[in-house]
From TrEMBL:
Key word Transferase present: yes
GO CC annotation: cytosol
Record flagged with keyword Lipoprotein: no
BP terms from Gene Ontology: methylation; RNA processing
GO molecular function: RNA binding; RNA methyltransferase activity
Domain tRNA/rRNA methyltransferase SpoU type: 5-52
Keywords: Methyltransferase, Transferase
Pfam family for this entry, one: SpoU_methylase
InterPro entries on file: Alpha/beta_knot_MTases, rRNA_MeTrfase_TrmH, SpoU_MeTrfase, tRNA_m1G_MTases_N
Protein name: SpoU rRNA methylase family protein
Amino acid sequence: AADPPDRLALVLGTEGDGLSRRTVEGADVVVTIPMAGGVDSLNVAAAGAVAAWALRRP
């Protein structure tokens, strides 16, 4: 994965619907968290923790 930029806005969507089309279209980069093992979604706190972990700097 590439290093995150110096300035970053992390926008999290709802469990069911995610982000609005307008929000997604206005983003420079969109990432998703793949689900496995019958899990349909993560709550926003868990998704935020996953994103923060993925963005950590060594």
